[in-house]
Automatic annotation (TrEMBL):
<protein>
    <recommendedName>
        <fullName>Pyruvate kinase</fullName>
        <ecNumber>2.7.1.40</ecNumber>
    </recommendedName>
</protein>
<dbReference type="GO" id="GO:0016301">
    <property type="term" value="F:kinase activity"/>
</dbReference>
<dbReference type="Pfam" id="PF00224">
    <property type="entry name" value="PK"/>
</dbReference>
<feature type="domain" description="Pyruvate kinase barrel">
    <location>
        <begin position="2"/>
        <end position="321"/>
    </location>
</feature>
<dbReference type="InterPro" id="IPR001697">
    <property type="entry name" value="Pyr_Knase"/>
</dbReference>
<keyword id="KW-0418">Kinase</keyword>
<dbReference type="InterPro" id="IPR015806">
    <property type="entry name" value="Pyrv_Knase_insert_dom_sf"/>
</dbReference>
<keyword id="KW-0547">Nucleotide-binding</keyword>
<comment type="similarity">
    <text>Belongs to the pyruvate kinase family.</text>
</comment>
<keyword id="KW-0479">Metal-binding</keyword>
<dbReference type="InterPro" id="IPR036918">
    <property type="entry name" value="Pyrv_Knase_C_sf"/>
</dbReference>
<keyword id="KW-0067">ATP-binding</keyword>
<dbReference type="GO" id="GO:0000287">
    <property type="term" value="F:magnesium ion binding"/>
</dbReference>
<dbReference type="InterPro" id="IPR011037">
    <property type="entry name" value="Pyrv_Knase-like_insert_dom_sf"/>
</dbReference>
<keyword id="KW-0460">Magnesium</keyword>
<dbReference type="GO" id="GO:0030955">
    <property type="term" value="F:potassium ion binding"/>
</dbReference>
<dbReference type="GO" id="GO:0004743">
    <property type="term" value="F:pyruvate kinase activity"/>
</dbReference>
Length: 473
């Protein structure tokens, strides 16, 4: 297993049981379903399938549902699957189909067109095509094509020069959550978040349904950057969604943005996931470009907990090969993390915020000094495992938990191997169970050194207060 986790998006090329199991064997730690591309019935079918697979599998993985949010999409005339846009030509963005010889594009939220004015930019498909508004009309705007491309129906639309008035957490999002509430979804992704209020609204909605699913916040708008710390404090993880983020800001800012967002989010001890165009050439080819390999490596060195494959595994011709290739890249980079991971040295020199942080940091330091084979983190909520992961120890982190929800949320955390254990109320029994699990999984053998973090009273959230060096008998 790689320490940097590999997450796969499912789609037409990968949503059958055989391929899903092959992706697991190849190294996948989680599966993402983009609700924007599924009807409710099909979404429910796929979540049910994933639950069936993990109940029969020895491999643990997370189920992630990506909510559509207020993502704008391009709608084309009903007879078209795609449209060729040529630089310099005129295109209408219209609320409804008009009687005209000009090319027309509609938006999934038609009233947004009324917010557009002269000189506003319209980016299609992450900026592959760029339109500029030249004239505003009653129920349409006339645009000139500044960058031509072929766009497909339902291509994403970004309007970087205006602030949208539509809500980020939509009624459709709520319908999807309600419909999947009893299906053991581990994470819901919030799309196009613009303020902390959007995250809090989603959290309140989950609470109203008594749902313990975690929230991943996709960072893909300029407004989200303005409130980044507050958003991190409310979410359970973030996704650096580089396609929309680049369209909303600018391509040249993206490399530094990625590094800064990972660094700032990691301080909250939440997982940071990097997504978009990691190995996109493999949608059609059987090998990545050198640029993609370097990009993937840099995301790992920047401190990403996980890498999210999107179109590569959803519509790519060889989804399993993509994961196998990603795994090789990750393994190669992880051999040199201690030499090249300068951000991790910065983390290790920080002062501890509280006693739990101090225990986590000490577990890393003692594991390094004693050359421990394993760190065992006994955790109810998963917080202890995430804190230890923050310091990027060279040995694996075995996270033992009696809570099924925590067990299924931990697979996306860097370096963590989740293990489900019985609820116990004795430290001695807890230690015995953890060591026996580690031996059974092949992580330790007789005479190996293990560092163990746990808390008393047992099973109570937020009580990590013990650290033990243990020699396996």
């Amino acid at each position: 297993m790689t320490k940097t986790k590999i997450l796969c998006s499912l789609g037409p090329k990968s949503e059958d049981p055989v391929t899903i199991k092959q992706l697991l064997d190849a190294g996948a730690s989680a599966f993402r379903l983009s609700a924007a591309h599924y009807g409710l019935n099909r979404l429910i079918q796929l979540i049910t399938l994933l639950n069936e697979i993990r109940s029969d599998s020895s491999k643990v993985f997370s189920i992630i549902v990506d909510l559509p949010g207020s993502k704008l999409r391009a709608k084309l005339p009903s007879n078209l699957e795609s449209m060729e846009l040529t630089e310099g030509e005129t295109v209408l963005l219209a609320e409804n189909e008009l009687q005209t010889s000009k090319k027309q594009i509609f938006l999934s939220e038609p009233t947004v067109i009324r917010q557009l004015g002269k000189d506003d930019e319209v980016l299609l498909d992450d900026g592959k095509a760029i339109l500029r508004v030249v004239r505003k009309q009653e129920k349409s705007v006339e645009c000139v094509v500044e960058r031509g491309a072929t766009i497909k129906k339902n291509a994403g639309v970004n309007l970087p020069t205006i602030k949208l008035s539509i809500p980020s957490f939509t009624d459709r999002d709520k319908d999807i959550i309600e419909a999947t509430a009893n299906l053991s979804v581990d994470y819901y992704c919030l799309s196009f978040v613009r303020s902390p209020k959007d995250v809090q609204e989603a959290r309140n909605f989950l609470d109203s349904l008594d749902l313990k699913s975690a929230i991943l916040v996709k960072i893909e708008t300029k407004e989200a950057l303005d409130y980044f710390e507050q958003i991190c404090s409310l979410g359970d993880g973030i996704i650096v969604a580089r396609g929309d983020l680049a369209a909303e800001t600018s391509l040249e800012k993206l490399p530094v943005l990625q590094k800064m967002l990972i660094m700032r989010a990691s301080k909250f001890k939440i997982p940071v996931i990097v997504a978009t165009q990691l190995l996109e050439s493999m949608v059609q080819k059987d090998h990545p470009t050198r640029t993609e390999v370097t990009d993937t490596a840099n995301a790992i060195l920047d401190g990403a907990d996980a890498l999210l494959l999107t179109v590569e595994t959803a519509i790519g011709e060889r989804p399993v090969l993509v994961v196998e290739t990603m795994k090789k890249i990750v393994e190669s980079v992880e051999e040199h993390l201690d030499e090249l991971g300068m951000w991790f040295d910065v983390r290790r020199k920080e002062s501890s915020v509280d006693s739990s942080d101090a225990i986590a940091k000490s577990s890393y330091e003692i594991a390094r000094e004693t050359r421990a084979k394993l760190i065992i983190a006994s955790t109810a909520s998963g917080s202890t495992a995430r804190r230890v992961s923050y310091f990027r120890p060279s040995c694996p982190i075995l996270a033992t938990t009696p809570r099924e929800r925590t067990y299924y949320q931990l697979p996306i955390i860097w370096g963590v191997v989740p293990v489900l254990v019985p609820e116990v109320y004795s430290v001695d029994i807890m230690l015995h169970v953890a060591i026996e699990k580690a031996k059974a999984l092949g992580y330790v053998k007789s005479s190996d050194t293990v560092v163990i973090t746990l808390g008393t009273p047992c099973g109570v959230v937020g009580t990590t207060n013990m650290l033990k060096i243990h020699i396996v008998e």
